[in-house]
Structures are given as C-alpha cells and as structure tokens.
Design a protein that fits this description.
The complex is a heterodimer of chains A (151) and B (74). Chain A has 151 residues and is mostly helical. Chain A has four helices and no strands. The chains are: A mainly alpha (151), B alpha+beta (74).
Chain lengths: 151, 74
Amino acid sequence: MSYQERKTLTNLIGTVVVNVIYWIIIYNRYLNGAFDTENMFRFYAIVILILVPISIAGRIVTTIVFSIINSIINEVKGEEQDEDIIDERDQLYELKAMRVSLVFFSVGFVTALLLVLFNYSVSHFFITIIIFGFLSEVVGSIYTLCKYRLG
Amino acid sequence: MAKLDIGNNVRKLRFLTEEMTQQELAKKVGVSRQTIVAIEKGSYSPTLELAFKLATVFNKPVDEVFYVEKKDAE
C-alpha cells in the first residue's frame, strides 16, 4: 500500500470515528434533554456548527498521528521516509473525488427537499442532509482509494 | 475521436540514464515515486508540463518519451 493510499485510508477512518463519536454524544445529550428541542432549526444549526470545528480538529489530529506512526513504522522497517508531496496526480484524484462527493451530496439534498415536499418533519430533512454529508465524504475517500489502486 | 492509448519509454530511458531509480526521477521532476510508478505502468497519463519535464531529464524530445500506442480514429 502506497503512502497516499495509507493517508487516504487513515483520513477515512478518522472521519468515520470522529463522526460516529460526535453523533453518539449528541444523541445521548439529546435524550438527556440537554438541548432546547422546541426550535428544531436552532438545534440542528448548533449541532452542525459545532461539528465543523470538531471535524477540522479531528482531521488535523488524524494527520499528525498518521505522520508519527508512519515515520515510526518506516524507521523500524529501515525504509526511506515517505515524502509528503502533493503532485498533479494527487490533485487530479482529489478533484475527481470532490466531484463524486458533490454529486452524492446533491442527491442527498434533493432527497431531503423531497421529504419536505411530502410533509416529513424538519428532523427528517436535517438528518437526511447530515447522513448524505457524511456518506459523501466516505464515498469521496473510497473513490480516491480506488483511483490510487486502479489508476 | 476515440481515446488515445499513450505509451511511454520512461522505464527504458531511466535505465539508459545511469540506471536512475524511480525515486531519483520523481525528485528531479517534483512528483511522488508513486506517480512515476503509475506513469510507467500506463495507468496515469501525465500533464504536458510533467511530460516535458521528464523529456528534459532524459534529454530527449517528448515524442521519444511518450507515444501513441493505438489510434482508433473514427
């Protein structure tokens, strides 16, 4: 497995772990009545806005931990340290993955709008957007992995 | 026009250029070793800029480094 594949896989795992932990915490706090659920728009605005910096912090921590572990493994194996170069191929794959993610998220957004159209609650709308937002990131990472594997 | 299959002589030219390693070539043209591997395997076609950089390293014209393998003209 190449350095780029390992990095993409680590970011994917990091994203899944951060999101799963975050939503478990939010769900428990929601059940304990920690949020004002009278105004659902405000509730979802708060949880999504908190998720943004947590996701960024999670990504930073994942990158740092990956670099440290990768360096240690290379040192133990006696291999040359991987250079963290982002070249044209990485940028191309990243752009293609972003396009796939955007298409996936757009499908989610349209689905969420359709739910509103068919008189589903605000919660259904936001939950659909959150799920598709998360899945679009996962699909984008898997697509990048496939591109690195298959070219 | 159908998609062109682009082949290359990068591996051969590397060996002819003092048996240069993939890592050395990657460093010279400013890409990762995996990108050189992908180019050699033919799974990635480089941009024009990288193609010229590779040709410059081998001191050859671009069409001696890259060539069209099969041309399915309509």
